[in-house]
Amino acid sequence: MIQNQHDNDLLRLKNLHTGFMIDGELHNAIVDVNFNVKPKEVVCVVGESGCGKSVMSLSIMQLLPKLNSKISAGEILFNGEDLTKKTDKEMNKVRGKDIAMIFQEPMTALNPVFTVGSQLQEVLFNHLEITSKDAREKSIELMRQVGISRPEKIIDEYPHQLSGGMRQRVMIAMAVALHPKLLIADEPTTALDVTVQAQILELLKDIQEKEDMAIMLITHDLGVVAEMAHKVIVMYAGQVVETSDVIKLFKNPKHPYTKALLNSIPRMDRDEEKLNTIGGVVPSLENMPQVGCRFAGRCPKAFGDCTKVTPKIAEVSDGQSARCLLYEECYPENHINEKEEIKL
Hints:
Elements lengths: L10 E12 L2 E13 L4 E5 L6 H9 L7 E10 L2 E2 L5 H7 L4 E4 L3 H4 L6 H12 L4 H14 L5 H4 L9 H13 L5 E5 L7 H18 L2 E6 L2 H7 L2 E6 L2 E7 H6 L4 H8 L50 E4 L2 E3 L22
Parallel strand pairs: 3-8, 3-9, 6-7, 7-8
Antiparallel strand pairs: 1-2, 1-4, 4-5, 9-10, 10-12, 11-12
């Protein structure tokens, strides 16, 4: 019996489309997203602001507002079960216990009118039959595990009384309290200074190794990617444009957007007068190109077909996939390729 390559996936997104209603019309913020996360794997999702990274994570958690957002197509398979088919009540059993999430800004993720201890204990009460005394003791122990000093005192304080780094540690304690199989971390170090960033990343790595937990880390910081990732998903304008293991991505990126991101990182071994930037901006939902490559308007290697032919994502090298017409594999089936030969 031949084993399917996706049989042991923890999480798998299949042809996912999520959109928002704008003036009565649905505009997709993410389109045709496909990727998988294996158990114990760290997958980093990278791209500029506005590329759809957070929308994708909130789609997985089913936390997007139902009033003006919709998963219009695709599946989100977690341990083989499609999360898009679950009710709110069923998802409440999954959130926190099987899949947990650390949000981008802990000050807005934590409720300012409740102590951090009461919010941490609420996670335990929602999923466990536990007494108040035991919940408090477990909360103190969790805070100690994530490196919070004096947890017996901090547990009774409010979010505004803590530093940004301590608030993020409380969020991590809440996320790992019930030993989830998957942790989604949405830019968990963005609001923190460099020293605290390093501490938080080290803490996440330590927890991941101890708990045998998979992590989907959303970031725009390629330094974080190099430090944390096993596999990298590069997103642009709501689409996955490249997937690769982390070493191959840094050694030989395939998509022009990935190359541009890497070139924009300051290099300590070069004496450069100015930083490299990517010209232009990510298109808005209302102005998203419907035909052709979405990066074409900013791409230094764009040619005629790039605005006429919509590329598909395909494997272009061993273990690396890209969505770019520089590669024959990315042309749609039955398309007559009229482009001139291009040297890569």
